[in-house]
Amino acid sequence: MSGPQPARKPKIPRQAMPEQPPDVRIRAFCEVALGYTPELAILEASRCLQCKKPKCIDGCPVGIDIPGFLKLIANKDFIGAAKKLREFSDLPAVCGRVCPQEEQCEKFCVVGIKNEPVAIGRLERFAADCERAEAARDLPKLAPKKGKRVAIVGSGPAGLTAAGELLKRGYDVTIFEALHEPGGVLMYGIPEFRLPKEIVRYEIDILKRMGAEIKANMIIGRTATVDELLKNGYEAVFIGAGAGLPILLNLPGEHLNGVYSANEFLIRVNLMRACDFPRYHTPVFCGKRVAVLGGGNVAMDAARVAQRLKPDKVYIVYRRTEKEMPARLEEVHHGKEEGIEFMMLCAPTKILGDGKGWVQGLELQRMQLGEPDASGRRRPVPIPGSEFVLDVDMVVIAIGNTPNPIVGKTTAGVEVSKHGTIVADDSGATTRAGVFAGGDIVTGAATVILAMGAGKKAAQAIDEYIQAKDKAGQPA
User: Fold this and answer.
1) pLDDT tens readout for residues 76-100
2) At what angle do helices 38-45 and 120-133 cross, to 10 degrees?
3) DSSP 58-117
4) pLDDT > 80? residue 475
5) For the domain that residue 102 is a member of, what is the CATH number?
6) Is residue 3 part of a domain?
7) Selection from 335, 336, 332 nearest residue 323 by Cα
8) Given 399, 417, 437, which residue is the final one in a domain?
9) What tens digit of pLDDT does each residue of 37-82 get?
10) How many structural domains is the chain composed of?
11) Is residue 30 located within the same domain as residue 120?
């Protein structure tokens, strides 16, 4: 018989990230998650098995060397880990906070087969935050100037990534932003408590130091057109204008005061700092009883923002069950902790007024789930005679967005789909030479990291397009 076997080393559990208590965080807009300590980060990174064929990389739209940066953290080289991340991603501090890692890199983590996957997103955030805290970020190496100019329409994740990649390749880049501050959805759509704006400004400042010119308050298609940009010295144009046009329900009463689209509500609070009125000069109305219609991340953001404006009650109204909600599980969990009430299997039928132009109630109908629809989720079916009225004085509609049609309608030769998205191939090339597009304006509303991946691919395609024109002896 063999002798006694050595005790097997116990498996390290996934490390929880410290957070502000719910009763504290609902009184302010400061960040909920506090980030890993160095000790927690080292422990969590050591859970990585350093697979020879890491499947986690396959789940990352920008192809980050995940085992590589995790090994550096485990070896206490935090700045080295940040530099490794920067080889693949221009926005690691952003992605570490808002990307759905559970559906991307972490979904493919081998550790997750029998245990919880390695917290790749939390560790990405940790490394990027260390770099920023120590002011350890060096500007990337830039190729010699080519004397060629590229225009970027939109300063969200797709536009910022395309700009960064083109600057590295030696191009002069001008970013055109419709609003008064660059950042796109990172600035106006994602609340401060999930993504502090100082992080977005930090990344944009790096692009400026790399040589990017940013022109705010420029609506391409109105202030200037894509055709005018191409005629005025830009060799190519990348359209990364996102999907910022809200989808409404066309409900009776949708015109009443107290009804917001999620876009308007979040822009007022996030970008215009309406939560800090009158120090900032944009007021925002928030009712005493608020209903947010929808079950995605934008609906959760709107509900959690509303909760911080001190109403008596905030509801999430969703026509399917919680299981079918597209919002991240973490956001749903935080919303429940913060006191938001979830009304599942309920669909709005009309918004009721008080006779003076303001919301007084929301009529809902109870639903039951039928057969799956095109999305793969079971289709909600109304239950006859189940209508009831919810006592609310504010309604936020958060059921999705489509691209603003201005750019597509004013750019000759660019094909637009029946959904309002710009048609582009995998490289970002549209049906018009010299015009490229990527991110939500092509895919419809999606994730930050997918938009970044599209911006990265488009930058390479733009470089190849301009070089090919030069070799052919033609003006690009």
Assistant:
1) 999 999 999 999 988 999 999 998 8
2) 140
3) GG-TT---HHHHHHHHHTT-HHHHHHHHHTT-S-HHHHHHHS-GGGTGGGG-GGGGTSPP
4) no
5) 1.10.1060.10
6) no
7) 332
8) 399
9) 999 999 999 999 999 999 999 999 889 999 999 999 999 999 999 9
10) 3
11) yes
Query: In terms of residue numbers, what domain contains 465?
Result: 149-244+402-471
Q: Is 40 part of a structural domain of the chain?
A: yes
| 372 membership: H or E segment, kind and range | strand 359-372
Q: Distance between CA atoms of 116 and 100, rounded to whole angstroms?
A: 15
Supply the DSSP string of 22-55, one letter for each residue: HHHHTTS-S-SB----HHHHHHHHTT----SS-G
Same-domain check for residues 72 and 203 = no
Secondary structure percentages of the chain, helix, strand, coil, to 5: 35, 20, 45
| pLDDT recorded at residue 403 | 94
How far is C-alpha 271 from the chain's CA centre?
15
Q: Which helix (H) or strand (E) element contains residue 369?
A: strand 359-372
Above pLDDT 90, what percent of the chain?
A: 85
Task: Determine contact, residues 128/82, Cβ cutoff 8 Å.
Answer: yes
Residue 476 has pLDDT above 90, yes or no: no
Neighbours of 124 (CB within 10 A): 29
Q: Using alpha carbons, list the distances in angstroms from residue 11 to 8, 43, 46, 114, 319.
A: 9, 11, 11, 11, 41
Question: Cα(446)–Cα(242) distance, rounded to whole angstroms?
Answer: 9
Instruction: For the beta carbon of residue 342, count every other beta carbon within 10 angstroms.
Output: 17
The last residue of a domain, from among 107, 133, 159: 133
User: Same domain for 317 and 353?
Assistant: yes
191 close to 266: Cβ distance less than 8 angstroms: yes
Show the tokens assigned to 188: 């106006």
For residues 414 and 122, give the distance between their C-alpha atoms in angstroms, rounded to a whole number. Answer: 40
Task: Report CA dihedral (229, 158, 306, 285) to the nearest 10 degrees.
Answer: 0
How far is the C-alpha of 32 from the C-alpha of 88, rounded, in Å?
27
Nearest-angstrom CA–CA distance, 181 and 386: 46
- One-letter amino acid at 371 equals E
- Dist CA 179 CA 245 (whole Å): 14
pLDDT of res. 2: 52
Alpha-carbon distance of 64 to 53, in angstroms, equals 14
Does the structure show a pLDDT above 80 at 9? no
